[in-house]
Design brief:
By secondary structure, the protein is an all-alpha fold. It folds into 2 domains: 90 residues; 95 residues. It is 64% helix and 0% strand. It contains 7 helices and no strands. The longest helix has 25 residues.
Length: 221
């Protein structure tokens, strides 16, 4: 897999809820939701787009702050994912509220992003890395398709931009189905790779036989 350096490898001693990056995540999420709710109240597509741009800028900013200040944590990564899905879901609900003809492509996209992509993104927790941004040390192919700069841009930006620019629901559906196919292929690769089970903490109680190996050998002491 290659060497895991200090930036890639998760350090339990540095894990905490509040960091400069998580504060940015919380602030940008609240700000985005306020704008999106305002957009829905005023039925304003312009405000809806402002909320989406605010989400994108904030999402980039908290990641940069985490790297600049060396405060990347697994907690922060999970918070970022949850916040992204909350903000993205609010945006697309608002979009369908204003443009009901987009309900089918948006439904497919939200299934892809909120369900399949969420599973893929949270899978990094099975390995001792700080975030999916470092999944290349586990599997470079899955990383390239999902968390490289190009992979992230295609998943988070392409669909929204083309929907807003063209207004073509059929094109949005094609893109949403294409993204879902990519995620399903990535999920297949992940399941073939397997999700490792973390070691049992010292002193924890374990049910008899629960740590048997696949061959049916006795539990490890």
């Amino acid at each position: 897999m290659g060497r895991w350096d200090d930036r890639v490898y998760a350090d339990p001693a540095t894990e905490r809820f509040f960091t400069k990056a998580t504060v940015v995540t919380l602030v940008r999420t609240v700000a985005t939701l306020v704008v999106l709710v305002w957009a829905a109240y005023d039925r304003s597509l312009t405000l809806l787009v402002v909320g989406l741009v605010l989400h994108w800028v904030g999402d980039s900013l908290d990641g940069e702050v985490a790297r600049w200040t060396d405060c990347e944590t697994r907690i922060g990564s999970v918070m970022d994912m949850v916040s992204d899905r909350l903000s993205t879901g609010a945006f697309y609900v608002g979009l369908v509220w204003l443009m009901p003809e987009m309900v089918l492509p948006v439904s497919v996209y939200l299934f892809e992003f909120m369900v399949v992509d969420s599973f893929l993104s949270l899978a990094f927790l099975a390995w001792p890395i700080r975030s999916p941004n470092y999944f290349y040390v586990v599997d470079r192919r899955i990383y390239q398709w999902n968390w490289s700069r190009l992979g992230k841009a295609a998943n988070s930006g392409l669909f929204a931009v083309l929907l807003l620019v063209t207004g073509w629901s059929w094109l949005g559906l094609v893109i949403a189905v294409g993204l879902l196919a990519v995620k399903c292929v990535s999920l297949r690769w992940l399941l073939q790779l397997g999700l490792p089970v973390p070691p049992v903490p010292p002193g924890a109680s374990v049910a008899p036989g629960s740590l048997r190996s696949p061959e049916g050998s006795e539990p490890s002491p």
